[in-house]
């Protein structure tokens, strides 16, 4: 190793001196750590300059001064800590002593309070007993005051009736009714019973007196009006006085309405508390309906007596087979009474501030009689299909006239809710299905089942629906009209399910008849079945967009009706909810499949005959036909005449027996199939001279296409293969050579993966009018030309 330099020796000496000086105050420090630190420190302060070593003494003095300062600070801090700790301990001791004093005081006060409460307990017991006695006495006083008030009101009513102060008596009775309402939550049952008996007693007396006077006035006004009112009735001499009495009595009866409602409710509650031997009936009007106006109740009494006299018991007019008798009678009473109610009663109600319609109230009262009667008759007719159907028909007709002629509000119940009772609704559905099936059997076996009743009227026979199909859809429409007015969507959906079941049943019957007629698809009955399927499908499609059926569709989704939505997945139900589908989609799919099968069989049978007629035409000598200039006049090929006649006759026949939409499908399908036959069996199976190609084009464009020109403007668009093949075969030689070379080069380049040519084969074909045929097909057609240069 090299000997240390002078500088290094000097640095080592300085380091040793510094270590010795620092070791005095840092004996516990690691020596090596301090040595590294001092070496770094000396490098920083002195560096490699030897001339700066003269400042080492100053640096050592500086370090000693800093060391002394640090020692003084440590001593100062150590001397100041004990007084602070001592002060904190003193404060804690004082807090502890204060807390003990407080706890001692708390125990003392708690003991005194406990002693005070023990001493006051007898006083508290005595006070509680006294307050209980006071409360009992107070309740007894209130009970006696209430009893006294009832007696005072009763005496007041008696005094008012003795002095004919009816208004005062009515006010007193109303006070009794208000008091009864106030005691409704009370536990004083005897007081309540006494009050209600008193109220009922005086209410009956006042009501009987007013009702008697009111009936006398009504008799003078010729109420009830049984027959239609006449305009020739002369007013009575005291008409003004009678009208005044009428208004007074109606107003007083209206004032008695509150107590009458209360008495009626109590009587109804007491009747419901007794077990009834009568079966529950849906004829009971909904409980939320307000009670009838008291004057109208009295006016209904003579009509009610007449109704029960004629339509109950052993009277000849009480016949289960004639529900129209009492239904018509009630409608007549409503119509005959309308003028009287509007002119006599309604103005009084308006002046009294009653927000009710006199005519509506009268209709409600009469309807309650009819509801009871219909409910009774319906339950007795559940085992007689004919009479039950007749009753349903009459009820539906009554409901229609009630809503339209009498303007009865739709929010109030009529008679239809009676038909929604489970047993009656199920019976109705069963009878509807039974009679519909019987009618289907009859209509399909009728003599003119497969002929259209409008066959002689061209403007009305576009769909050419046979009589059986039209009768069936009329049957479904009648069922719809019957259940359309029902107030319950769930019941309506049950009838919709029945209709769908009937449609499917009718489709199966049509399929069975079609299989019997499938041996002759061109027959009139086979085409009539096809027309029937198309007619039913068209009507069901229209129903799917009908507002009524769309509402039923929404109701089915919201109610989750299994009878209608059964078997549908989440996606199908979602489509129904968004109104993208219809409830008839499943049936329409089945009908469309049947229609497609029948149309395919019809076209297949037709094409079989046409193809047979096409064979001579395909075997013609196309290669040896002379050019066009050698013939003075172009004529139809003789071998094509049978085919053309067959096509013409079949088109005329299909046009006569098929509906217009079906015929559109038929001739287009026929054109497509004929295009394929001519292209495959005639064109691709022969070679053509120039004359043969021109003759083929003449036969097609001037003879075949015009046969379809009666049904569209451009029939050649339905014979794309034949039309474009004729274009290729009739190209002049130069154009044909250029086109052939282009197509061959394009074919070779496609095999060698060469880039696209300009012009492309497709654009070249489009220029000559070829859009459907592929380039390879065009090459085949060009090779069918017999005349090429050099051949």
From TrEMBL:
Belongs to the RINT1 family. The keyword Coiled coil applies. This is RAD50-interacting protein 1. The keyword Coiled coil applies. Keywords: Coiled coil. InterPro entries: EXOC6PINT-1/Sec15/Tip20_C_dom2, RINT1_Tip20. Gene3D superfamilies: Dsl1p vesicle tethering complex, Tip20p subunit, domain D (1.20.58.670). One of its GO terms (cellular component) is Dsl1/NZR complex. PANTHER family: RAD50-INTERACTING PROTEIN 1, RAD50-INTERACTING PROTEIN 1 RINT-1. It comes from Cottoperca gobio (Frogmouth). Residues 53-80 form a coiled coil. The gene is rint1. Pfam families: RINT1_TIP1. GO terms for biological process: endoplasmic reticulum to Golgi vesicle-mediated transport; regulation of ER to Golgi vesicle-mediated transport; retrograde vesicle-mediated transport, Golgi to endoplasmic reticulum.
């Amino acid at each position: 190793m090299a000997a240390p330099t002078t500088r290094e020796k000097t640095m080592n000496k300085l380091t040793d001196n510094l270590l010795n000086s620092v070791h005095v105050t840092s004996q516990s420090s690691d020596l090596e750590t301090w040595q590294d630190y001092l070496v770094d420190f000396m490098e920083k302060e002195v560096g490699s300059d030897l001339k700066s070593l003269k400042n080492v003494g100053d640096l050592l003095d500086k370090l000693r001064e800093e060391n002394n300062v640090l020692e003084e600070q440590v001593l100062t801090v150590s001397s100041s800590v004990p007084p602070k700790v001592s002060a904190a301990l003193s404060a804690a001791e004082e807090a502890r002593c204060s807390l003990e004093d407080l706890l001692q005081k708390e125990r003392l006060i708690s003991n005194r309070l406990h002693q005070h409460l023990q001493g006051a307990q007898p006083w508290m017991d005595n006070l509680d007993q006294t307050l209980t006695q006071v409360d009992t006495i107070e309740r007894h006083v209130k009970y006696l005051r209430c009893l006294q008030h009832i007696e005072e009101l009763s005496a007041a009513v008696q005094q008012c009736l003795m002095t004919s102060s009816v208004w005062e008596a009515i006010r007193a009775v109303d006070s009794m009714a208000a008091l009864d309402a106030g005691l409704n939550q009370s536990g004083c049952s005897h007081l309540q019973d006494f009050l209600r008996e008193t109220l009922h007693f005086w209410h009956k007396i006042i009501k009987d007196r007013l009702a008697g006077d009111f009936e006398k006035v009504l008799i003078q006004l010729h109420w009830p009006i049984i027959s239609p009112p006449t305009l020739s009735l002369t007013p009575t001499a005291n008409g003004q006085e009678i009208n005044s009495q009428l208004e007074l009595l109606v107003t007083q009866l209206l004032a008695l309405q509150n107590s009458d409602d209360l008495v009626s409710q109590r009587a109804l509650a007491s009747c419901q508390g007794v077990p009834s031997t009568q079966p529950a009936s849906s004829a009971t009007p909904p409980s939320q309906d307000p009670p009838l106006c008291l004057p109208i109740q009295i006016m209904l009494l003579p009509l009610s007596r007449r109704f029960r006299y004629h339509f109950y018991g052993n009277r000849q007019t009480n016949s289960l087979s004639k529900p129209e008798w009492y239904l018509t009678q009630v409608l007549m009473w409503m119509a005959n009474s309308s003028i009287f109610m509007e002119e006599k009663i309604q103005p009084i109600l308006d002046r009294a501030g009653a927000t009710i319609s006199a005519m509506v109230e009268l209709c409600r009262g009469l309807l309650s009689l009819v509801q009871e009667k219909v409910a009774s008759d319906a339950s007795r007719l559940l085992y007689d299909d004919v009479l039950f159907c007749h009753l349903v028909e009459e009820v539906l007709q009554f409901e229609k006239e009630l809503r339209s002629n009498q303007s009865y509000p739709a929010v109030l119940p009529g008679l239809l809710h009676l038909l929604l009772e489970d047993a009656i609704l199920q019976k109705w559905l069963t009878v509807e299905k039974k009679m519909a099936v019987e009618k289907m059997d009859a209509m399909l076996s009728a003599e003119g089942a497969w002929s259209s009743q409008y066959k002689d009227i061209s403007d009305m026979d576009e769909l050419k629906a046979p009589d059986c199909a039209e009768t069936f859809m009329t049957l479904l429409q009648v069922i719809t009209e019957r259940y359309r007015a029902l107030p319950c969507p769930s019941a309506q959906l049950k009838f919709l399910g029945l209709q769908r079941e009937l449609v499917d049943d009718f489709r199966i019957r049509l399929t069975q008849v079609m299989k019997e007629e499938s041996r002759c698809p061109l027959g009139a009955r086979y085409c009539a079945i096809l027309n029937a399927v198309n007619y039913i499908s068209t009507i069901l499609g229209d129903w799917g967009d009908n507002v009524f059926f769309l509402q039923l569709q929404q109701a089915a989704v919201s109610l989750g009706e299994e009878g209608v939505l059964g078997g549908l997945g989440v996606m199908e139900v979602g489509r129904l909810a968004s109104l993208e589908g219809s409830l008839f989609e499943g049936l329409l799919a089945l009908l469309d499949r049947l229609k497609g099968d029948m149309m395919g069989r019809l076209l297949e049978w037709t094409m079989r005959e046409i193809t047979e007629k096409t064979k001579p035409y395909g075997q013609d000598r196309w290669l040896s036909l002379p050019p066009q200039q050698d013939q003075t006049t172009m004529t139809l090929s003789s071998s094509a005449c049978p085919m053309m006649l067959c096509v013409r006759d079949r088109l005329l026949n299909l046009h006569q027996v098929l509906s217009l939409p079906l015929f559109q499908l038929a001739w287009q399908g026929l054109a497509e199939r004929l295009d394929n036959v001519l292209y495959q069996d005639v064109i691709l199976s022969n070679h053509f001279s120039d004359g043969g190609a021109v003759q083929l084009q003449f036969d097609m464009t001037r003879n075949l296409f015009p046969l379809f020109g009666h049904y569209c403007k451009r029939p050649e668009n339905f014979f794309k293969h034949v039309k474009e093949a004729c274009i290729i075969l009739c190209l002049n030689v130069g154009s044909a050579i250029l086109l052939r070379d282009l197509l061959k080069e394009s074919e070779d380049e496609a095999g060698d993966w060469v880039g696209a040519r300009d012009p492309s084969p497709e654009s070249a074909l489009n220029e000559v009018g070829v859009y459907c045929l592929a380039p390879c097909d065009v090459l085949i057609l060009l090779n069918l030309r017999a005349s090429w240069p050099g051949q």
